[in-house]
Hints:
The chain is of the alpha/beta class. The chain has helices at 7-27, 43-59, 74-86, 105-111, 123-130, 139-150, 170-179, 194-198, 244-247, 262-279, and strands spanning 3-4, 33-39, 62-68, 92-95, 159-163, 183-187, 203-206, 223-227, 231-232, 238-239, 251-254. Strand 5 (159-163), helix 7 (170-179) and strand 6 form a beta-alpha-beta unit.
Amino acid sequence: MYKLIDGKAVSEYIKNSVKEKVADLKVEGKEITLAVIIVGNDPASRVYVNNKKKACEYVGFRSLEYALDEQTSEQELLELIDRLNKDKSVNGILCQLPVPEHIDEEKVIDRISPEKDVDGFSKINVGKLWVGDYDLAACTPMGVMELLKYYNIDVNGKNCVIIGRSNIVGKPMAALLLEKNGTVTICHSRTKNLSEITSQADILVAAVGRAGFVTADMVKEGAVVIDVGINRNAEGKLCGDVDFDGVKDKTSYITPVPGGCGPMTIAMLMNNTLVAAEKQGEI
Ligand code: NAD
């Protein structure tokens, strides 16, 4: 019988622990601030930014929103980041991705001071992650690690297979599992014999972006299956990358979509902002 990994409950637990620390700091007159930049009118980005603001309210952070026009130049955006980098009252900065095409995403990410880069996307923070000396790493894979920890799922010596090699999920996921002594394989769109590899995984992480991509024949009996995907199926219903109904009975643990990895990402953003403030010596 499989066990469902309850990302909603674990994310509440993380947010509540941040909230408690923030309440203690308030007593000392200290406040933590997250600045969120959004450029343009992408509806999905708007939903994400609103959710981040709500989470800030919940844990007690001050949140600043900079909603910039679609036509904002790259220079104007970089200048805003420079100002926020210098502003001592701002502890965390993130720019909601994607940015409009005329803006170089990489330049934007790397302009954010590494100490305030709460998404953990800058080259400095990615490098620090890979040498195992990091404070801020990408929120979604950090959330997966918290789920594994919460359910006492040991990574040590396990065969961990990740499907997807993006900079925001697949690659940092690999670094974090490796740090916990997993034997890690990253699969991607050019991987040959994918199901042969995935069916050897003790821990299988799907981050592909295709509804129902992972089917039962790709999964080892008793595996832990973590579904990072957020997709819409043919009926427009939210679903992950894993064919949940077909796969669940083969697993020992599985994350649902929604209610699995999704809520963890924002919880880890809150935690990263607290960590950033701590490292800045603000608390
Ligand atoms: P991406 O498009 O950048 O990367 C997808 C990866 O899948 C690529 O590395 C590609 O090589 C691989 N891939 C594509 N087709 C494949 C195939 N046939 N076989 C093997 N690999 C294949 O996507 P991403 O940003 O990493 O996101 C992946 C999914 O996770 C999306 O559904 C996204 O919405 C979701 N996501 C969820 C959260 C969250 O908070 N839960 C956060 C980020 C992304």
